[in-house]
């Protein structure tokens, strides 16, 4: 993970890289650092904590330079300390490197260099890059970087500067994103083009094993053998919209409240009421190709995985197409079998999740067509898939996914509708589903209007340290997602489980101090979950139920009930999830955790 930002030009490079770094904090925020060249001297400063901590220290220094590189870290190798923060240096402190990714053979390279007298300062894998470049540098900085690259295994994106080349930044990438922004007499480097969009919309992306020499005049890219290659710059058309919290205390709450609008955006112009079907312009597959699909493989991680799990019920039940949902990090090591007419759906809010990208590339290589479901235009996923369906949810700043999850559910519902109408679903049924989809934004509004009640209930449950989240059928992935939200932002052990499995072991954990959040929105399994909850009550477990309006029986069982508007089973994850999000938010607030940037996490998980 980690975020890299670099600048070369006439402006104040130091303040500019710090500003850029703040836009990349979603990639990690446990330490940060900057290196620059001022009057021919390499200077640097690093701090543990967020970019704001670094910013405050740098302000005192009064540094002025037209060239700087900076880094915000999510620790992989070595604790988040000042020494382990980036930049990392060579022994002579003449070369500085910022890095995103993991050097898998760092131990071997470290030993090799140590045998030749190099001594290391940090525990990081990154220091082997800077030390290696320093060791190989015999007066030609570019050549030294090029010679170092084939000795490094793993995935990485780096930006390197050297005291002896005060007008150059060298970058290289291997399976990690790196964008170079081309301005007028000024150049930018960033892990995500969004970070320099305010200054330029022209971006060049480095592909695997390419490197680039950046000067004020322009960019020269090279292949791994240092042969020059031509690279066209792309014109980025997405907005450089500045996102603020507005009147909300946290981005998370703001993003939860945006959902009536984001659901509307996800639906906009994507269905035909008349034909009861979905219109998905982003889907670049012919009618014939779509019709022939015999199997769907969904790849995703975390919250996106929960959206994928929900989609199995949608695709199998509505379109009668067999679906496998695969945890991206496990999938690629299975040596997957790709039969003819397999469609892969890669779901990733950020479009930068390394595991999902790797799994997707594996399937692509084996001949599957890939549809991406993503929120970020210009992301690696969006650029590499055959077709991309965008969520249109706007930037999501809080590390915990909220609005993007419900938009993923909408897009997957529309995609399943598209398939279902080709195979088994009648026009009438299609129209019925569209009507229910259209009703969702106002139903979500009505749940948001119950926020005070949800906050009161959250306060009542906030002191418990262990929870179960239970559901069945459509409510099973919904329960997993509810549990994940509570873990992420409130640091509470929350176990998401299919309710019917409790009696096969986990019920042993139920007692009066381990409450259950029960999702009762699936009509087919409603009577069954009531019985499962009776079993919990019989063992003194407390039950907080989320149930559709009109569910009477639950009142006699649960200790507390939060009612949500009734919808179709296949859409019921959305209202229930809005409640989970508010519940997790208010419990976290009561416990005083850092809601928008929870400990140990990052918004984009760019390492495998
Ligand atoms: C969600 O709240 C989490 N932050 C996390 O599980 C996330 O969903 C996961 O890392 C996948 O991210 P992606 O959707 O950007 O691929």
CA gyration radius, whole angstroms: 26 Å
Q: Label the CATH architecture of the largest domain.
A: 4-Layer Sandwich
CATH-level-4 superfamily name of the largest domain? Aminohydrolase, N-terminal nucleophile (Ntn) domain
Please identify the structural class as seen in this structure.
Answer: alpha/beta
Oligomer: single chain
Based on Cα principal axes, name the global outline: globular
- Major sheet characteristics: 8 strands, antiparallel
Low-confidence stretches: none
* N→C terminal distance: 9 Å
Mean pLDDT: 94
Bound molecules: 2-deoxy-2-amino glucitol-6-phosphate
Quote the CATH topology of the largest domain: Glutamine Phosphoribosylpyrophosphate, subunit 1, domain 1
The total of helices stands at: 18
- Number of E strands: 27
Structure write-up:
The structure is a single chain. This protein is α/β, with parallel strands linked by helices. It has 3 domains: 3-241, Glutamine Phosphoribosylpyrophosphate, subunit 1, domain 1 (4-Layer Sandwich), CATH 3.60.20; 244-448, Rossmann fold (3-Layer(aba) Sandwich); 450-608, Rossmann fold (3-Layer(aba) Sandwich), CATH 3.40.50.10490. It is built from 18 helices and 27 strands. It has an 8-stranded antiparallel β-sheet, with helices on one face. A 7-stranded antiparallel β-sheet has the order 5-6-7-8-12-13-14. Strand 12 and strand 13 form a beta hairpin. Helix 4 (126-136) crosses helix 5 (141-148), helix 9 (302-319) packs parallel to helix 13 (403-423) and helix 13 runs antiparallel to helix 14. The radius of gyration is 26 Å and the shape is globular. 55% of the residues are buried. The mean pLDDT is 94. It binds 2-deoxy-2-amino glucitol-6-phosphate. 2-deoxy-2-amino glucitol-6-phosphate binds next to helix 9.
